[in-house]
């Protein structure tokens, strides 16, 4: 938790970008042997976005980052951190190229890989850069193109995942300000590394290397870890579930969102579920959900808000803040 009198990282802008192509449940391949009703009932998803072949994950990231800067009303930033599981290539990192394409020169820029927890891991790293006095502002970008790593004929994953990007601009400010990141909780458990995975070149040197996950085990871990992590950041802020205005969890599927809210004793309307039209967008899901919650007037300035996520690694993370007054900027590509 922030110590009074110290500086804090403050959310100053929010931007998102989605591919323009929407794939609804009825348009999924017949070989998946599924139906719109089956998918909606089990996941809460009715459609997802798919990136065009000539659009890269960096294109999505640049658009979301530019929108976040526009939202914050600034043209410069001190550093950039990209959270992604789906880079165009394993080396070099994408963040320096994104910073260059945005005209930000030679600022510090690096990638973070924590799968669906990546956005919050990147936000925590950004907060450290700011509070340590290294930079005055950081663009935290999360961008994913899961359509390129998910087997299109695997019903357990193909119906879940979509593509998209979201970004926030964090600036140096006071812990007393709305938008100040008040507390973080981060954790991992490498004993569960095989539950969410993409095979490496050594174990599968030829052929397609598709994303996979052990659904039931991931469900149980996600509910437990997000619940406990959210409770820890609330405790650090001297909040309780009764005083929390809104929970914004990683948008894995509707059942996980509902289960975490129930474990925390929250009514359904105080937990954002914004995946119906975009699916699970991995690291990008929290900033996309924040923008959707703002558009639906579920999230208002002054709301006590907890963000929480769970992903491969295994990793989990939470953050607490009082939501600021800002206008999110959205685009499609």
From TrEMBL:
Homology family: Belongs to the thiolase-like superfamily. FabH family.
Function: Catalyzes the condensation reaction of fatty acid synthesis by the addition to an acyl acceptor of two carbons from malonyl-ACP. Catalyzes the first condensation reaction which initiates fatty acid synthesis and may therefore play a role in governing the total rate of fatty acid production. Possesses both acetoacetyl-ACP synthase and acetyl transacylase activities. Its substrate specificity determines the biosynthesis of branched-chain and/or straight-chain of fatty acids.
Name this polypeptide is given: Beta-ketoacyl-[acyl-carrier-protein] synthase III
Pfam family of the protein (one): ACP_syn_III
Catalytic activity line of the entry: malonyl-[ACP] + acetyl-CoA + H(+) = 3-oxobutanoyl-[ACP] + CO2 + CoA
UniProt xrefs under Gene3D superfamilies: 3.40.47.10
Domain notes from UniProt: The last Arg residue of the ACP-binding site is essential for the weak association between ACP/AcpP and FabH.
Catalytic EC class: transferase
PANTHER family linked: 3-OXOACYL-[ACYL-CARRIER-PROTEIN] SYNTHASE 3 (PTHR34069), BETA-KETOACYL-[ACYL-CARRIER-PROTEIN] SYNTHASE III (PTHR34069:SF2)
């Amino acid at each position: 938790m922030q110590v009074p009198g110290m500086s804090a990282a403050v959310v100053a802008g929010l931007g998102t970008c989605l591919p323009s192509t929407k794939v609804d449940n009825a348009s999924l391949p017949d070989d998946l042997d599924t139906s719109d009703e089956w998918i909606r009932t089990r996941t809460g998803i009715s459609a997802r976005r798919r990136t065009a072949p000539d659009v890269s994950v960096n294109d999505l990231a640049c658009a979301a980052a530019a929108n976040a800067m526009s939202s914050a009303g600034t043209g410069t930033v001190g550093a950039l951190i990209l959270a992604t599981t789906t880079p165009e290539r394993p080396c070099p990192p994408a963040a320096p190229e994104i910073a260059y394409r945005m005209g930000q020169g030679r600022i510090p820029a690096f990638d973070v890989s924590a799968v669906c927890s990546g956005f919050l891991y990147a936000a925590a790293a950004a907060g450290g850069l700011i509070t340590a006095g290294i930079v005055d502002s950081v663009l935290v970008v999360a961008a994913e193109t899961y359509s390129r790593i998910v087997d299109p004929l695997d019903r357990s994953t193909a119906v879940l995942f979509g593509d998209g990007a979201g970004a926030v601009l964090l600036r140096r400010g006071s812990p007393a300000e709305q938008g100040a990141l008040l507390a973080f909780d981060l954790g991992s458990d490498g004993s569960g590394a095989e539950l969410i995975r993409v095979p490496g070149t050594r174990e599968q040197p030829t052929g397609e290397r598709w994303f996979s996950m052990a659904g039931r085990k991931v469900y149980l871990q996600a509910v437990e870890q997000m619940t406990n992590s959210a409770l820890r950041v609330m405790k650090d802020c001297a909040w309780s579930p009764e005083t929390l205005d809104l929970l914004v969890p990683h948008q894995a599927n509707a059942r996980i969102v509902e289960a975490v809210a129930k474990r925390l004793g929250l009514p359904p309307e105080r937990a954002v579920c914004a995946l119906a039209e975009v699916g699970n967008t991995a690291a990008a899901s929290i900033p996309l959900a924040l923008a959707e919650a703002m558009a639906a007037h579920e999230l208002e300035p002054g709301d006590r808000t907890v963000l929480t996520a769970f992903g491969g690694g295994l990793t989990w993370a939470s953050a607490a803040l009082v939501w600021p007054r800002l206008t999110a900027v959205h685009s499609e590509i």
